[in-house]
Amino acid sequence: MSITLISKEGAQFLVSKPVADRIGVVRDCAYGADFWLGYAVATDDSMGITLANVTSSILSKILVWCEHYKDMEPLVDGDSNMEFPEWDMAYIGHDMNQILFVLEAADYLHIPGLLLLACKGIADVLDGRNPRGICDLLGIVMDFSHRQEVDMDKENGYWRWFLHPT
Amino acid sequence: MPQPRLAHPQPTSIAHPPPQADGALPPSHSLPLAPPTPAPSPRPTSPEPSSPLLGASASFLSTFPHLPARQQRAFLTSLVPLLSSDHLRHLSTLITPLLQRDFLRDLPIELALHVLRFVDDPRTLARASQVSRTWRALLSDEHMWREMCRRHGFDSHLSTADVLRIRHQEFLRQQGGFTSMCSFSGPSGSDYIHSPRPMPALTPPLPPQAHPFSYRRHFVLSFLTDANWRRGGRLLITHPPSPSSPPPMAGADLAPLGAVPGIPLLPQPHLFHGQPGHPHAHVHPAQQAPQTTENVVTSLAMDDDYIVVGLANCRVHVYNARSGALFRTLVGHESGVWCLGLASATPKDDFIVGGAYRAPGLAVERDSQEAWNEEQRRNMADPCGASRGWGNAGPVVVSGGCDRDVRVWDVESGECKHVLAGHSSTIRCLKLLHDRPIAVTGSRDGTLRVWDVERGESMHILAGHQHSVRCLEVWGNLVVSGSYDCTARLWNVDTGECLQIYRGHFHQIYAIAFDGVRVVTGSLDSTVRVWQARNADSVQMLTGHTSLVGQLQLTSTHLATGGSDGRVMLYSLPSLTPLHRLLAHDNSVTCLQIDHRFLVSGGNDGRVKLYDLKTGTLVRELTEPCEAIWRVSFGRERCVVLCKRDGRTVMEVLNFRPEEEELNW
Predict the structure, then answer these.
(1) Contact between chains at A127 and B124 (C-beta distance less than 8 A)
(2) What's the half-sphere exposure (Cβ side, CA atoms, 13 Å) at B362?
(3) How distant, in Å, are the alpha carbons of A57, B136, B157, B610, B648 from that of A125?
């Protein structure tokens, strides 16, 4: 059995059941449809599910992940030290904007493994950047009050002290 | 990008499912299901084209979204060369904000916090808190810092006061007194601590402290303390002050804190120069001339508040651990003190709420590994010689030595509460049980005795060893003892019966460790044996040393051994795989202690070495080399070294806790 997923733009993606099962919301939809809608699930190839919040480009990206993980279990939250496989890190990349869309989509579609990976991806992009660098990256305007700036100066001295201990 | 849904192929809405009978399914592709659509997260809105578009371009715009992706891309690629730099600049200002998203602000808060949990380097978090107000507020979220504490292992060493504080704050939050999700630090936090809200009787009393507890603060404190161990730290105090250099805190050691009028103290700095073997030396301390005879330090115990030192000159000195100042001298023993234990003060409320005592048995089947780990952790003896008290309001010291008496002291008043007679020879070793007023002593008369130190009674005599009892270790209500008769025994403290005898060593046993599952013994025959506590036949022999093994410590993950050959071995548990062989000292190892971060060893060569537990590399030497190290003990924030320097016995307290003003944010 396979399922047709329909993106926000209306593009259709035909995916096999093990791949679609990685997407929590599709799983719920497929199994819970009679429950929701009052009539039985279609058991032939005919079923289509509209994912109205996910664009085609992000959906195809997500399906790559689902395809990769159709036969194995992704990391679950709480695994000690969360070491992601190399494939995952290459997959998620460093494009902040794209990772954010993946993150939101993974949240909306209920894909916990991918959600974790996206979080990790964002954290890695932030790693090693100074505040100014983060602002430039994300287009944030610093909006601190004078008092907060004084506080931060204190903090700065503090962290610098541990970055370069005597 | 939000696009107008002009020509959706299947505009079926989930809200109005066609009322159909079971059999009447529509043909293929007519059943598009859709998951419930939550309100989309807020996003920067794309500027709507406000200028009226002419017919052709308007109709093209409406068809553009429906072109195949390849054609869309090709169209854009061919469009760019047609644009002037003015156009490009205009485009750039339109596009840039679309590609930049302040995700912490835009994402739902729980997602944003989820992302931050994945930042490994706390320095990144520190930097991120300086980005904007929103970020700053999010980054003071307590749950995230709690997670960071957990990940770095900092949650395992919360002090009793901190635990009380957390419990108190959680209680207030449950009462609805505190609903904001952000941290307790800052001015608003201190208000609520002093709020006049009536406290129910069961709320633990809040110890006075300048700051309410915050995980963020705790994290920074712990992180910096660890960094200090490696590279910073300062010598808090030296007793007696070195004559060559001015004392680091002049006068501090001359002003005992919390002195009770009428109790004589020993305010002179030359603390360790009493007269050994002269029972009345302490009566006229002021008349004491500096002695040339050195005094041997025999025992050391410490907790977060006090450092207790037992000397061969019958004295027990108690120091304030935070300031390093002499707090009290306990006088009464008639000859040398050989061993002592410290029971930390535990307010009764705390004891009832948190420390409920459960009698453990030998490790049999447990409900879960986790429950067992927790039980093992709770029952494990403290390597610094301190035990959790039994609800005693003030700290209690129990000491024993050559005069065969066990003495129980109230530290705050300096009063000797009980003198417990019974042993017929020198008391060689002593341990206190956690959560109970019970001390176990081992003596050269070959017996162990179990004492109720609250009521001052003997509870049991554990007889069986043929020779001196040299060492003992407690775990829950069990005690193991090692003896010069080459055997070790396992006893039940409550019944007084001997549960196991471990035979196999060829020479005297000098050191013993016990974690509820395995008993480890170190002997003059230069071997270390690891016995299964329940089955004395099952034994593993570790032969890494070439002479007497006198130092042993077990933790939940490691076994460390130190020998007279100057060598230190570290094994991982439960496999007993050797991790590191350290040639630590030129002479015998006199003291050895490990925690989850470090290994500290002191030797007769006068050096104190700090090793990284994971890598086994020497981090640094903690003190200037001296003649010999008597005792070293360390807690999270400080290290106490008792050594012989320039012919005199000296105590040095090293402090690794960052200064309070550095933490004041």
Answers:
(1) yes
(2) 14
(3) 21, 18, 32, 36, 57
Strands B337-343 and B386-387, by their bridges, are parallel
pLDDT by residue (tens digit) across B353-382?
344 444 344 444 446 777 777 788 888 888
Which of A51, A57, A140 comes nearest B102 by C-beta? A140
Six-digit token string for B264? 């004589």
Task: Supply the pLDDT for residue A85.
Answer: 86
A157, A88: one domain: no
My answer on whether A31 and A68 are in the same domain is yes
Are residues A81 and A142 both part of a single domain? no
Return the residue matching tokens 């085609």: A56
The amino acid at residue B659 is E
Same domain, A154 and A119: no
How far separated are the first and last CA of chain A, in Å rounded?
66
Residues in A closer than 8 angstroms to B111, CB to CB, are 103-104, 107
| Whether residue A158 is found in the same domain as residue A76 | no
* Per-residue pLDDT tens over the stretch A71-115: 888 877 765 566 788 898 899 888 888 898 899 899 888 888 898
**Among B370, B371, B375, B342, which residue's Cα sits nearest to residue B358?**
B375
Sequence-distant (6+) residues with CB within 8 A of A147 are: none
Does the beta-carbon distance from A39 to B20 stay under 8 Å?
A: yes
3-state SS string over B255-271? CCCCCCCCCCCCCCCCC
Residues in chain B, overall count: 665
How much is the pLDDT for B405? Answer: 93
DSSP element (H, E) containing B187: helix B187-193
Task: For residue B83, give the H/E element and its range.
Answer: none
Binary contact (B9, A10; C-beta < 8 A): yes
List Cα–Cα distances, B312 to A60, A72, B279, B334, B444, in angstroms. 78, 66, 12, 10, 17
Locate the chain B residue with the closest alpha carbon to A29.
B35
- Is the domain of A151 the same as that of A97? no
Evaluate if residue B493 carries a pLDDT over 60: yes
CA-based nearest distance B90→chain A, Å: 17
CATH number (domain holding residue A6)? 3.30.710.10
DSSP letter at A152? H
A115 and A142 co-located in one domain: no
Coil/strand/helix, residue B340: strand
Domains in chain B, CATH or no CATH each: 107-224 (1.20.1280), 550-665 (2.130.10.10)
CB-based contact B103 A142, cutoff 8 Å? no
Burial environment of residue A91 by CB neighbours within 10 A (0 to 12, 13 to 18, 19 or more):
middle
Range of the structural domain that residue A137 is part of: 132-163
- A100 with B124: Cβ contact below 8 A: no
Can you tell me which residue has the tokens 């109970």?
Answer: B436
Nearest CA in chain A to B19: A38
Same domain, A87 and A139: no
State pLDDT tens for residues B44-79. Answer: 444 444 556 667 778 888 888 778 778 888 888 888
**Min distance B237 CA to chain A CA atoms (Å):** 20
Encoded tokens for B190 = 């201190």
SS3 B541: strand
Half-sphere exposure of B570 (CA within 13 A, CB side): 26
Q: What is the sign, positive or negative, of the torsion defined by CA atoms of A145, A151, A155, A157?
A: positive
Give the DSSP H or E segment for B458: strand B457-462
Of B25-34, B465-474, B651-660, least confident by mean pLDDT is B25-34
User: In chain A, how many domains are there?
Assistant: 2
